[in-house]
Amino acid sequence: MLTRRKPVSITNAQKMLTDLPLRSEVEEIPVSKANHRIVAQDILAPFDYPHFRRSGYDGYAIRSEDDHDYPKIFKVVGNIPAGATFDQPLGKNETTRIMTGAFVPDNAGKVIMLEQTREAADPQHIKIMVPANHSNITEKGTEFAANDVLIKANTELNPGGLAILTALGIQTVPVYRQPKIAIITTGTELIRPNEKRRPGKIYNSNGILIENLVKEHGGVVTENRQLVDDANLLKTTLKSAIAQNDIVITDGGVSVGDYDFLAVAALKSDKLLFNKLRMRPGSVTTAFVQDQTLVMALSGNPGACFTAFYLYVEPLLSRFVHRPSRVVETTATLVAPYHKTNGFDRILRGTITQNDHGYEVVPNGSDKSGDLGNLQTTTCLFEIPHSNTPIALNTEVKTWLLPFK
Ligand SMILES: Nc1nc2c(c(=O)[nH]1)N[C@H]1C(S)=C(S)[C@@H](COP(=O)(O)OP(=O)(O)OC[C@H]3O[C@@H](n4cnc5c(N)ncnc54)[C@H](O)[C@@H]3O)O[C@H]1N2
Ligand code: MOO
């Protein structure tokens, strides 16, 4: 029997998901594996950085009190390559040859660059021609004092951050655990890429779409199953995916058809959040909680699947790791005509450009739920609000900028 569904606005659906608690946890992982992970607490410097005085140039280290009356001959009492140390204090008008990055003797106050020196008659001596304007020494603790914050909590690490941690001798870092995501695509019409094309069958494009969207946004895909439409098979697959993952994403079988078994699972679930949205494409997007695990049931239509991923799933993946959503909501001026009217808010795949006045948006080809030709080139989604009359040109429309585009 057909059950009437209660349509929910995009904003309300997003709020229902935002209010849902997620199982965020912290784990300690090697810094070498932490690129793009979100740091779970302030990371403090374990020591002053640099932790010894370092020469900024290849040259000669001298005492500050000898730094006058040039040109002047100094006695060379040592040679300090990078990586070595030098314990003996410099005496009056004594110097040591020193290389960039090398340990500066404790009582040296300056490094004179090689270019400002000349060989003396005696190889044990060097002639320094002019004074240096700067000490040319990087003092201990110049960049960080011990206990300074190196990386703030909730920061996404990047290669630069990994370098900072490594320079400070930090080998592991506490980060938010990545959400474990199971993907279940459904449909007896689906075939795999290596299968022969035949009438009635289509290649499963949403499976690879969702898997890579999830990975791009920091989820770990634990399984990506493709099921024929079979109520029992779905039931057992769903049960095991729910038990082992933080979020389960399903695709297809969520409308009102004879084989739409996900729609049935949603109605029987512990908590149905929504199974009809006031938006198109993606009106059938459904969310429910079963055994404390969220199931996001996306439409089988590729355009709807793509749209709903960005509006509902990406924010969940970001929130799981305490990162702001990468789908940035803004407004843009609609600068191409759009004549269709809709009872539901229509979300168009668009192309965004920025000029001195702000963003401008135009539809990027088809707005059809079942079309996928524009998924590669779409840079934003934007909303044509429901109305009986066509939207006027140059109206400001709600727009979501898509990441990785
Ligand atoms: N009587 C009604 N029929 C439909 C309604 C309705 O309200 N009443 N809603 C329509 C809308 S809107 C949508 S959207 C679709 C949603 O259907 P489902 O989410 O249940 O998805 P399916 O029926 O399984 O498939 C829809 C479409 O997408 C193709 N598909 C499915 N899986 C994949 C995949 N992995 N990769 C690529 N393409 C896929 C599938 O073959 C269908 O063509 O329902 C309308 N019907
Ligand atoms: O719900 Mo469908 O995705 O509008 O076309």
From TrEMBL:
Q: In which pathway does it act?
A: Cofactor biosynthesis; molybdopterin biosynthesis
Reactions catalysed: adenylyl-molybdopterin + molybdate = Mo-molybdopterin + AMP + H(+)
* EC class name: transferase
Which metal ions or organic cofactors does this protein require, according to UniProt? Mg(2+)
Cellular component, GO annotation: cytosol
An individual GO BP term:
Mo-molybdopterin cofactor biosynthetic process
Q: Which positions fall inside the MoaB/Mog domain?
A: 182-319
Give any Pfam family that matches: MoeA_C
Q: What InterPro entries does the record tag this protein with?
A: MoaB/Mog-like_dom_sf, MoaB/Mog_dom, MoeA-like, MoeA_C_domain_IV, MoeA_C_domain_IV_sf, MoeA_linker/N, MoeA_linker/N_sf
- Presence of keyword Metal-binding: yes
Q: Which SMART domains match?
A: MoCF_biosynth
Query: What UniProt keywords are attached to this protein's entry?
Result: Magnesium, Metal-binding, Molybdenum, Molybdenum cofactor biosynthesis, Transferase
Q: Name one GO molecular function term.
A: molybdopterin molybdotransferase activity
| EC number from the UniProt entry | 2.10.1.1
| Top-rank taxon | Bacteria
Protein's job: Catalyzes the insertion of molybdate into adenylated molybdopterin with the concomitant release of AMP.
Can you tell me which family this protein belongs to?
A: Belongs to the MoeA family.
Q: This protein is called what?
A: Molybdopterin molybdenumtransferase
